[in-house]
Amino acid sequence: MAKNVMVVDDSFMMRTLIADIVKADPDLAVVGEAENGKVALEKVGKLAPDVVLLDIEMPEMNGLEALKRLKLSSRAKVIIISSVAQVGSTQAMEARRLGAFDVIAKPSGSMSLDIAAKKGSDIVKAIRKACGLAAQ
Description:
Elements: E1 3-8, H1 12-23, E2 28-34, H2 37-47, E3 51-54, H3 63-73, E4 77-82, H4 90-97, E5 102-105, H5 115-130
Parallel strand pairs: 1-2, 1-3, 3-4, 4-5
Helix pairs in contact: 1-5, 2-3
């Protein structure tokens, strides 16, 4: 049975690109998308994803605030995918402190159209690890 993944990013284009990366793995399914942390929190209860892929910089409720609340209301593992989460950044360290399973930096800023080529395999590996699936 496929593991369920939810994609949260304020950019429709980034949600689409990231969802396509997830859908390319036959063991994973995208069960929902959200444009900010507030909408994500509303959907998580209904969709019960195994993993939430979460951007940090979003309107209404940013990813770090959403992460805090998700850890209280859901068993889903959270993987941060954000342009501000570069290795060693304050945001990346805060995400880890708040319980993020992994932190992956977008390769080319908030609109990383090259995310599949540069980070696609890292994203899939992190999801598979979070779900307890063997590496491919």
